[in-house]
Design goal:
There is one protein chain. The chain is mostly helical and 80 residues long. The chain has one domain. Helix content is 72%, strand content 0%. The chain is built from 4 helices and no strands. Helix 1 crosses helix 2. The longest helix has 16 residues. The protein is elongated, with a radius of gyration of 19 Å. The two termini are 30 Å apart. 0% of the residues are buried.
C-alpha cells in the first residue's frame, strides 16, 4: 500500500543514509522500522517474545521467590 507521511528532516536524512549503507530501498527501511515499532508496542507480541525466550532458557531460568517478587514489582511500576 502506498501512503504519504511527513518525517522530520533529520530522521529522513538518517533513514536515507541507512538505506544506502545497507543497500535497501527507502520503503524497505521505513516498513521494517514501522513493523518493529508496532511489534514492540503490541502487548501480545511482547508476551509471546518473553514466552519464547523463557522456553529457550528452559527450567534453569525459572525464577525463585526473589526473582518472582522483583519481576512483579518491575511490572507493577511499568507503563504498558
Amino acid at each position: 500500500m502506498k501512503t504519504a507521511v511527513s518525517v522530520p528532516n533529520d530522521v529522513f536524512n538518517r533513514a536515507e543514509q541507512l538505506a544506502r549503507a545497507a543497500g535497501r530501498s527507502r520503503s524497505d527501511v521505513y516498513s521494517a522500522a514501522l513493523r518493529e515499532y508496532v511489534a514492540r508496542h503490541d502487548p501480545d507480541e511482547v508476551t509471546e517474545a518473553v514466552n519464547r525466550a523463557m522456553e529457550e532458557l528452559g527450567e534453569e531460568a525459572a525464577p525463585d521467590a526473589f526473582g518472582r517478587e522483583t519481576a512483579r514489582r518491575v511490572l507493577a511500576s511499568s507503563e504498558w
